[in-house]
Specification:
- This protein is mainly alpha-helical and about 140 residues long.
- Helix content is about 40%, strand content about 10%.
- The chain has a two-stranded parallel ribbon. Strands 3-4 form a two-stranded antiparallel ribbon.
- Helix 5 runs antiparallel to helix 6.
- The longest helix is centred in the last third of the chain and has 13 residues.
Amino acid sequence: MKYDYIIVGAGSAGCVIANRLSEDPSNEVLLLEAGGSDRRFFIQMPIGYGVTYHQKAVNWMYMTEPSPDADNKPSYWPRGKVMGGSSSINAMVYVRGNPKDLTSGLRQETQAGLTVMFCLILKKWSLGRMVLMTIEAAMDL
């Protein structure tokens, strides 16, 4: 079978992109996920994070490189290996982004063209379109 779009990772962003692309019936979209279903008791229950935090079946359980800011020790970095990605194993915690992060932090770390485009897209389009356009903008650099 041929696909118009192949999306690797069924985390929050991957699912949004796949959903938006599949709204057009002429698009053939393949969404790949290394993990399994998120229909698990400890994923559906917010306090279950204590179990999924150390469960290889749903968590990649990454370790960072040692950092001088952490006494040259690595840090544990849980990342979701399941439909929904890390959003499925984060105890249903939601943190709203700070608009200042888009105007100050990104401007310092990226090229001006991408920063300006990112901010304009954020104001004009929904999340799905923003993610698609941001990826497209990054590919043009």
